Amino acid sequence: MPAPEMEIVHLLRAVAVELGLHSARFASRNGMHPTDVRALITLMDARRAGEEMTAGRLGAALGLNSAGTTALVDRLERAGHVRRVRGEGDRRKVLVEVDERAVALGQAYFGPLIDRSVELLRGYDERELAAVRSFLRGVRDAAGREGE
Amino acid sequence: MPAPEMEIVHLLRAVAVELGLHSARFASRNGMHPTDVRALITLMDARRAGEEMTAGRLGAALGLNSAGTTALVDRLERAGHVRRVRGEGDRRKVLVEVDERAVALGQAYFGPLIDRSVELLRGYDERELAAVRSFLRGVRDAAGREGE
DNA sequence: CCTATTATCTCGTTGAGCGAGATACACGCT
DNA sequence: AGCGTGTATCTCGCTCAACGAGATAATAGG
């Protein structure tokens, strides 16, 4: 018989799959591709962290080469989700800024899921929250470290 | 200031991203595409559950149409990861069976991460495990339900 | 300034996945 | 048995995301 911990491992995998499908639904409903959604999420993360995002850094974050990055930003710009802004200091750079409406669109779609997650977490005490937190940190670090 | 629960929400998202990247690394190291890896995982899940997997069901599970499914199975078969077996009862069906070596390959790659996760979980008591389990179930169900 | 380096874009190509339709088998129905 | 309807897979032609190679433009160092 398998270790009882395996149930949680499979649950975690199922969550990852569901979250992926959730993004994919958002993508296809808005005429976008999974990569475009990942790009918008990356851009919003950077914005929340108060960092500027250049075309190159965006492409690197998504594992695209320069040609693919240009095509991606073209696509997002054509759809009105981002703007290209030439770098102030270094005029070779192209800063990619998310449009407010894209942010609102994302919040409208992902908001309910986030709210529900927060609501679930409010049902736990400090020790239980610490367990969830440290398990997720552990898996994230293990997945990030394995194979470089 | 943001709710403290948001840290865990972002952690969960980070885990999903890392697991995705982990699969992607496995894919590119073995000359495969993300879809091929998802297909193999689906096939192994079915095998563990003792179910037969037809070409059609596999394609449906991955959201591919019939043409894409044929191409996918062609690709996997050419690489020696699966075999096509004509259905016994219904000769229109094509059962897709994973090759033992593909199973071994997957276990060699994902095994350490799974082992590490189980090891992490062994550090918690029953109440903490229950918290992790119910949180993951809750998020999985919420992500699955949102937008159909 | 002249050269090396860095950031982005252009061009031509590959290949995953799609839509439409062909093919092959299964299961009634009479 | 013979025929039509439904179902499973495959073939063909196409689109478009992403790649490799190389062009273009701006910065940084000697």
UniProtKB/TrEMBL annotation, chains A, B:
It comes from the Bacteria. The lineage of its organism: Bacteria, Bacillati, Actinomycetota, Actinomycetes, Kitasatosporales. It comes from Streptomyces brasiliensis. This is Transcriptional regulator. Gene3D superfamilies: Winged helix-like DNA-binding domain superfamily/Winged helix DNA-binding domain. Residues 5-141 form the HTH marR-type domain. SMART domains: HTH_MARR (SM00347). Transmembrane segments: none annotated. GO terms for biological process: response to stress. One of its GO terms (molecular function) is DNA-binding transcription factor activity. It holds the Pfam family MarR_2. Coiled coil: none annotated.
